[in-house]
Every structure is written in C-alpha cells, then in structure tokens.
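Sequence and structure are kept together here, with a separate record for every protein. A complete record is shown below as an example:
=====
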Amino acid sequence: MSDLLSAASVILTVSGILFGLWYADLRSVIAETIPKHLPDRKSIQGQIRSALLAKAIPLAAFSVLASLIFLPALISVVVDALSKAAHYRLGALALYDAGKCSFVLVSLMNIGLAIYSSILAYQLEQKRRKTKL
C-alpha cells in the first residue's frame, strides 16, 4: 500500500503544481469580457485557444487519467473498509490502517482536482464558442 500511496502522492503533487502555476491565467482568461464586434475578438480568441490547448486541456487530461489509474485500488480499499465496518462494527477501529486512509484521501483529492480542472476546461471551451458568434 505504501508504494501505491507514494505514487498517488507524487501524481497529486505534480497536478497540484501545474494547477497552482496555471490557475490564475485560466481564471483571468475566463473572466475576460468578450468584445461586441467580431473583428475586435481576435485577441481574446488567441488567449482562449492558447489557454485551452497549452494549459486547461493538458491539466484536465492529466488529472482525469491520474484519477482513473488509482480508481480500482480506491474502490477496493473503500469496499474492504466498509465490509470490515459492517462485520466488526466498532471493533473495526482496531483494524484501522493510516496508510489506506491516506491513500483514500490522496485519491479523493486527485478526483476533486480532476473535476475542477475539467470544469475550467469546459468554461474555456464555452467562452471560445461565444467568441465565434
């Protein structure tokens, strides 16, 4: 379990660093106002395209893939914990494993980051479509 926890932690660290580096840029492009006239939109279209292709899509893809890699192990750990809790009731606390709990926490953080980075990519894509109108 410690190897799995280490791998998940490293991937979360990489995802978190990329998210931290790119978040302000992505939010600023999302917050930009779209000019009313089509010829004035060239600048914002370039910013959106760059943010989508160079930051938002790679971050979302990396985060989603990282979450999917660990999903089977996460499900296994959670199902095992729930079955032990159902069988042993309070006695299951004696079987507590901090490594497995840490793995669940790191995996859930990966999933949360994947969801939020996907939402950012979706918002940028919606903005890109609005600039085309």
Q: What stands out?
A: Residues 2-132 form one domain. The two ends are 52 Å apart (CA to CA). The chain is about 85% helix and 0% strand.
